[in-house]
Specification:
It is a single chain. By secondary structure, this protein is an alpha/beta fold. It has three domains: 90 residues, Chitinase A, domain 3 (Roll); 61 residues, no CATH class; 199 residues, Rossmann fold (3-Layer(aba) Sandwich). It is built from eight helices and 17 strands. Helix 6 crosses helix 8.
C-alpha cells in the first residue's frame, strides 16, 4: 500500500474548526498538489501525516498564534479619522465603518503605503479618531486542524517550482473575518448599501426563465451535502427565492414549497411539491402561518435582498422552535440585481453579514458558518477552460430558539 513520503505529491483536504463568541466555524480547503519535501505545514502536521495511506487523517489543536501569526503590540494602532483615504467603488466613495475590513493602503496617512493590500479592521471610530487592528483575524483563536490524505501520486524529478505555505493559503485568505470585533455588531448597513445597478421592477428581470446552474456540479454537491446534515425525512421545507434547482439531497422525502419569481423555473424543479410567486423586495411578509415549517433554505440568492433583516425576521416567524435556517452562497451572481454592499464585502465578511442577519433577530441559536474552497472543477464543466477550481461554497445556519 502506497504511503505518504517525501517523494509524493498528495491531495490533502483540510478542515479547520474555530469558534467566535457568536458562532462555530468550519473551513474546508483542498490542497490539491501538496509537495511534502518543499511545502510548509503548521508545526507537527507534516510529522503526523508522513506514512499515512490514502484515507488516513490526523487532527492537531493549536493555541492562539501557533497556526497563524501571533498578535503583537504593534498590531493595534490609532490614527486620525482623516487619515482614512476613501477610494471609489461602483461610483461612490467607500467610507469607514466599525467592524469592517479594509486594505491597509486606505490608511496611507497612518504610515502604510497606498499599495498595501493587507487587511486591517476598524474596531472603533468617531469624527476625530479611529482604532485599527492589523492582527490576523484568527490570532486570538484556538484552531483545530484535521488533515486527510485524499490521494497520492509519485513525484517527477524535482527541478524547482512553487513552495506552498498551506496555512497562509487557507487561513491567510479570509477565515476569521466572519467574527464580530468584540461584542458590538459590525456596521454593515449604510446609505447606499442596498442600491443595485438595475433598480427597475424585479418582476420584469425575472419574467424570462433561466434554466441554468449558478454553480458547478461539485459545488452543488457540497451545498446539498451541507443541507443534508440538518434535514430529516418528512420535514416541511421552504425553499426561499427558489428557481429550477433547490440543491436538496436527492434521496430524502421532504415536503418542499418554493417561493420565487419565475413560475416556469419552479414548475421545472423536480423537488417542489408546490410553489408561490412573490417578490421579497416588494413584500417582505411571508404568506405562511407562524411556526409552520421545519426548515427554511435560501440558496445563492441572499445577495439580491434589499431588506434582508426583515426577511430574516419573517423566517424566524415561520420556523417552528428548533427549526433550521440555512443560507448558501458562492461568488457568482446576476450583476444588475446584486446589492452594492454584497460587492463591497470580502467573501468571508459576507459570512459575517449573513450571521448578523440571524443574530439581529434574536431568534436563532447554534449559529455556524462553513466554507468549502479549492476543490477541482468537474472536467465537463463549461467553464473548465477559464478555471480548474470549483466554485467556493459558503453556508451560514442557525436554529430557531
Amino acid at each position: 500500500m502506497k504511503r505518504l513520503d517525501m517523494d509524493c505529491l498528495a491531495a490533502i483536504s483540510f478542515e479547520i474548526r474555530w469558534s467566535s463568541p457568536e458562532a462555530l466555524h468550519r473551513e474546508h480547503f483542498m490542497a490539491r498538489k501538496a509537495n511534502m519535501w518543499r511545502d510548509i505545514f503548521p508545526a507537527g502536521m507534516k510529522e503526523v501525516l508522513m506514512g499515512q495511506p490514502a484515507g488516513g487523517e490526523s487532527i492537531i489543536s493549536y493555541q492562539p498564534g501557533q497556526a497563524v501569526p501571533p498578535r503583537s503590540r504593534q498590531d493595534v494602532l490609532s490614527t486620525r479619522t482623516q487619515n482614512f483615504m476613501p477610494r471609489e467603488f461602483l461610483g461612490r466613495k467607500v467610507e469607514p465603518a466599525r467592524g469592517r475590513f479594509y486594505p491597509r493602503g486606505m490608511l496611507a496617512g497612518a504610515g502604510f503605503f497606498s499599495t498595501d493590500m493587507r487587511p486591517c479592521r476598524i474596531t472603533s471610530l468617531d469624527e476625530r479618531e479611529l482604532w485599527v487592528d492589523c492582527a490576523h483575524p484568527l490570532s486570538d483563536c484556538n484552531v483545530e486542524i484535521k488533515a486527510r490524505v485524499e490521494d497520492l501520486a509519485a513525484k517527477e524529478c524535482e527541478t524547482g517550482g512553487r513552495m506552498n505555505h498551506w496555512m497562509e493559503e487557507i487561513l491567510g485568505s479570509g477565515p476569521g473575518m466572519q467574527a464580530r470585533a468584540g461584542d458590538a455588531p459590525t456596521e454593515f448597513a449604510h446609505d447606499h448599501g442596498f442600491e443595485r445597478n438595475d433598480s427597475t421592477d424585479d418582476a420584469r428581470f425575472y419574467s424570462s426563465p433561466r434554466f441554468i446552474d449558478h454553480i458547478d456540479a461539485r459545488a452543488r454537491e457540497f451545498l446539498a451535502g451541507e443541507y443534508a446534515r440538518e434535514l430529516q425525512p418528512d420535514m416541511k421545507v421552504l425553499d426561499l427565492m427558489s428557481s429550477v434547482t433547490s440543491h436538496l439531497p436527492q434521496d430524502m422525502q421532504l415536503q418542499v414549497t418554493g417561493l420565487g419569481m419565475n413560475p416556469e423555473e419552479m414548475q421545472a424543479n423536480p423537488v417542489l411539491d408546490s410553489h408561490v410567486i412573490q417578490d421579497l423586495n416588494l413584500y417582505q411578509e411571508l404568506p405562511f402561518n407562524d411556526e409552520s415549517h421545519d426548515a427554511v433554505l435560501c440558496s445563492l440568492s441572499v445577495e439580491y435582498l434589499t431588506s434582508p433583516w426583515a426577511i430574516a425576521r419573517e423566517v424566524a416567524r415561520v420556523l417552528r422552535p428548533g427549526g433550521i435556517f440555512m443560507v448558501g452562497f458562492s461568488n457568482r451572481w446576476f450583476p444588475p440585481k446584486v446589492v452594492r454592499l454584497w460587492q463591497e464585502l470580502h467573501e468571508f465578511e459576507r459570512c459575517g453579514f449573513v450571521l448578523d442577519l440571524l443574530l439581529q433577530t434574536g431568534s436563532f441559536k447554534d449559529l455556524e458558518s462553513i466554507s468549502i474552497r479549492n476543490w477541482w472543477r468537474p472536467d465537463d464543466d463549461p467553464h473548465i477552460a477559464q478555471t480548474r477550481v470549483s466554485d467556493p461554497v459558503y453556508v451560514v445556519k442557525g436554529r430557531r430558539v
